Amino acid sequence: MTQTLTRKTLLSDKELAVVRLLADGLRTKQVARRLGISMSAVSMRLSRAAEILGTTTAIHTVVECARLGLLEPDTHRAARLRREIADRHASTCSLLSNPSCDCRG
């Protein structure tokens, strides 16, 4: 996305909560427990976030949110995990020659 958008116009607080917890390294089941929602609700919120951002995977969604400044590093550990996720995502896109992702460039 090239235009600058505020957090509110981009993703809901519920969608951001899911993405933030995934960025912190939690798995879907752990996110559901932490937020007190079902795993299908986690998947629905993640799918909606991916649709809004034009991403295709959970990792790509996390990376795009970080790129847009929607994920503030809460701790050193969280920032390190986000970097690892971004590196893994870039490696995967490079291996697959993913034309729909601009993470490599």
UniProtKB/TrEMBL annotation:
Transmembrane domains' residue ranges: none
PROSITE patterns, A to Z: HTH_LUXR_2 (PS50043)
Highest taxon of source: Bacteria
Family annotation (InterPro entries): Sig_transdc_resp-reg_C-effctor, Tscrpt_reg_LuxR_C, WH-like_DNA-bd_sf
Residue ranges annotated for the HTH luxR-type domain, each copy included: 4-69
Name used for this protein in its record: Response regulator transcription factor
Organism annotation: Actinophytocola glycyrrhizae
